[in-house]
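Ticket reopened. Same input as before:
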Amino acid sequence: MATIKATNDWVFIEQDKKTTESHGFTLPDASKEKPSAGIIVSIGRLVKDPDIKAGKGKRALFHKGTGFSINFEGKDYLVIQSGNIIGVS
Amino acid sequence: MKAVNNKILVTCDMKQKDQITINGFTLKCANSYNTNYRERSPVVCSRVDTGEILIVHHNTLYTPSPYHLGDNLFSIPSNSKILFAKLEEDLSLTPLLGHFFCERVEIPSDFPLPPEYIKHYDDRVRVTDPGQTRYKTGQLLFTRPFSYYEIVYIINNQQKRVIRCHEDMVVGYLIDK
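Engineering reply: fixed in the latest deploy. New output:
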């Protein structure tokens, strides 16, 4: 089985999935709010921040609309530069 | 004269893409109407001091341009934005300055499709020539969307194409677990 390894200062994040909104309706993908949090899956070796460096498997908070998504083997990953992460819990 | 400030002096045949021969047929390029600059702009130049033949970006060798010195002489910066590859004696290309050659990856389809309907991923490539990078031939790399660039060049009246990408554009690769 192959997994993705990030390079340079990129971070791969598994996005939170939200199937229904708070009011109970299921919205089409285009109408959904873009996620701003997710689980860190892979961290590039040029990432400098020590908290992000040690953050594999932790939740990361980032600005909405940053980065781009990559679909691999049915999973959607958000790829963002480490500078766009605003917090790790 | 010796070039300084990381610049190199090159000469270029400005008419290299006026006429091309493909599979024995000689075609005249209609430059006035052809808006595809990648197909019509010269990209092959010869380094003055070493005689090496270089492949550069298609927006570099034109007149009037800030790089143009006169006649067919140009002074171009030696950086990865402009300089892509070097032509070897056997007419093969060697990628330079962190570039590597790759091929597009097809999006799999449940049905066999004719070539014009085959779609490719815009965010991943397969390495065909790693150059000086740490990647291996055949490796699947994830890149920033549309970061690869197809170079169209003409050698010995033959039009050739190669797809290049830069290692800075790579965001991830696969590892076996």
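The first strand of chain B starts at residue 7 and ends at 11. Residues 7-173 of chain B form one domain. Please confirm and we'll close it.
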